[in-house]
UniProtKB/TrEMBL annotation:
Keyword Oxidoreductase on entry: yes
Domain of life: Eukaryota
A Pfam family matched in the record: ALO
SUPFAM superfamilies with a match to the protein in the record: FAD-binding/transporter-associated domain-like
Alphabetized UniProt keyword annotations: Oxidoreductase
A GO CC term attached to the entry: membrane
Protein's name according to its UniProt entry: D-arabinono-1,4-lactone oxidase
InterPro entries according to UniProt: ALO_C, FAD-bd_PCMH, FAD-bd_PCMH-like_sf, FAD-bd_PCMH_sub1, FAD-bd_PCMH_sub2, FAD_lactone_oxidase-like, Oxid_FAD_bind_N
Signal peptide: none
GO-annotated molecular function: D-arabinono-1,4-lactone oxidase activity; FAD binding
Organism: Ambispora leptoticha
Annotated Gene3D superfamilies: 3.30.465.10, 3.30.70.2520, Uridine Diphospho-n-acetylenolpyruvylglucosamine Reductase, domain 2
Length: 484
């Protein structure tokens, strides 16, 4: 399909007006860096043959438009929405020099956080409510302005003062309009210093060769100085977890966890030592192992034993220290190659106060349903509460459960694997990450999960009265009534 690459806001307005006036039903969708589940952007399989699609990329609308220091410590930046947060290796026009984070750092400033990768565009990252792993820092708190062209071709400059439309647009999946520019408030640039440990998940021990320095399932062990997982994430006793994330290898006989954590420091007091991901060669080896594990029969516990034996190579018990510039260190997974290890995700955001129960539920799932373990990992991290109405962290801090599904698997589907998690964690009223897989029945839950759902729907209808941004996927997930 031809992708339109407008060079100005006027061209976007023309595309929208053409779609509204077209004789044949026409929808308009934007693609950022294409890191979301295809259906969340636009998937031709979802679209009736009688509907035309105008598919837009903002690749010609990238770059910093305006940078303004506001004090010794602060500044604001207005950036075109097609700008990548960091360099996207899949896009030949994306460079380190034209990425947002690098340019901010060159000016001496920073965003509060990044995701685990920074390849996304500014527009795409915001639109799905994406977030880095932190209960302390959040990117969406830094957003102070959103410029958007709505479904009538009208331009809106939304700021915190506009309140409702701003809060509705902050996470809107391209369903209110096309975001062309975003303004962020900035803070001084910083560094991070951190450590990753890989250990068994049980028993508890401060010695990672023996056991786990975090209590995943209980209330911690004060005598040994071991925090519960909630205490660890919320950094309530200085566990140096300004930023953190955990990967759990739940295969029977392996049961390892990799705990990555970093604290913010204003000055770099040592050499830059970038966090090291497995080499490309090891990633390729990992791909072969994952594919092999997927094709062999699934005899439950025996399968898990084989998986544990092979996967041990990728989760060796040990410690790695790192110290880095914020923009290069926070996206700790940038060096994992999407082409070698393509992954699908579903991500369930659950109220943070349920963390211990959720961990125990996962443990129960892995024990009772060996197939739910699969051949890969589950990521566990957090997000700080958000003011944006449709953010899955709206008004509550969350624990995020993010099972990985290797897309090189020859048997099964991501949905088959994710179904275990959707069923097991249903009782916790999870909200889904909008850029990742969601279950078909999610549309029935959404109105009850977001207290501002009706307000968001009213603003959506006002800003896109002809429904030119609505795909069948989004109609089903948000219960958007059909106007035809
Ligand atoms: C390897 C990997 C790691 C990831 N890590 C994280 C993580 O750490 N934290 C996290 O929260 N998520 C993470 N994600 C998910 C990712 O952040 C989201 O999928 C994000 O939306 C991708 O941004 P994008 O630029 O690729 O946008 P796309 O995926 O291309 O688009 C996302 C949505 O935004 C819409 N959109 C894009 N641009 C605009 C615009 N200018 N105006 C209006 N609508 C627009 C699209 O139509 C679509 O609905 C990860 C994904 C992958 C594949």
């Amino acid at each position: 399909m031809k992708i339109l690459k407008p060079k100005s806001e006027n061209e976007i307005q023309d595309i929208i007006k053409d779609a509204v006036n077209a004789a044949t039903p026409t929808i308009v969708r934007v693609i950022g860096s294409n890191h979301s589940w295809s259906r969340a952007i636009f998937d031709a399989k979802d679209i009736p043959k009688t509907t035309n699609v105008k598919f837009i990329s903002l690749t010609n609308l990238r770059g910093v438009e305006k940078f303004e220091p506001t004090s010794e410590q602060t500044a604001t930046v207005t950036v075109w929405a097609g700008t990548n947060i960091g360099k996207d290796p899949r896009d030949k026009d994306s460079t380190l020099e034209n990425s947002l984070t690098y340019q901010l750092d060159q000016h001496g400033y920073s965003l509060p956080d990044t995701g685990g990768i920074s390849h996304q565009t500014v527009g795409g990252f915001l639109s799905t409510g994406s977030a880095g792993g932190s209960l302390v820092h959040s990117i969406d708190e830094a957003v102070i302005g959103i410029r958007l062209i709505d479904g009538t071709g009208t331009i809106h400059d939304l700021t915190e003062k506009d309140n409702d439309k701003f809060l509705a647009a902050g996470v809107s999946m391209g369903l209110l309009g096309i975001i062309t520019k975003v303004t962020f408030k900035l803070q001084k640039k910083f560094y991070i210093t951190g450590i990753q440990t890989i250990s068994p998940i049980k028993p508890l021990s401060r010695d990672i060769n023996v056991g786990c320095p975090i209590d995943f399932f209980g209330i911690g062990d004060k005598d040994q100085g071991i925090p519960s997982i909630s205490e660890f994430f919320s950094n309530n006793r200085d566990y140096d977890t300004d930023y953190s994330r955990i990967l759990w290898w739940p295969q029977d006989g392996l049961d390892r966890v990799s705990i990555w954590k970093a604290k913010k420091i204003s000055d770099n007091n040592g050499p830059i030592d970038h966090f090291k991901q497995p080499s490309i060669f090891i990633q390729f080896f990992g791909k072969v192992i994952l594919a092999f594990l997927n094709v062999i029969e699934f005899p439950g516990k025996i399968y898990n034993k084989i998986a544990a034996f092979l996967l041990k190579n990728f989760s060796e018990i040990g410690v790695e220290y790192f110290q880095d510039r914020w923009w290069n260190g926070l996206p700790m997974d940038n060096d994992i190659c999407d082409q070698i290890l393509p992954v699908a995700f579903t991500e369930l955001w659950i109220s943070f106060d349920k963390t211990k129960d959720v961990m125990n539920k996962l443990q129960e799932l892995f024990t009772n349903e060996p197939k739910s373990v699969g051949n890969f990992i589950t990521e566990i991290y957090t997000a700080k509460k958000s003011r944006f109405w449709l953010s899955p962290a709206y008004e509550r801090d969350v624990i995020r459960i993010d099972p990985f599904y290797f897309l090189g698997n020859l048997r099964g589907t991501p949905e088959d694997h994710f179904r275990f998690y959707w069923n097991a964690l249903k009782e916790y009223n999870f909200r889904c990450h909008w850029g990742k897989y969601t279950p078909d029945e999610y549309g029935n839950e959404v109105p009850g999960l977001f207290s501002k759902y009706e307000n968001w729907m009213a603003i959506r209808q006002e800003m896109d009265p002809h429904q030119i941004f609505v795909t069948p996927y989004w109609r089903s997930r948000l219960t958007i009534p059909n106007i035809n």
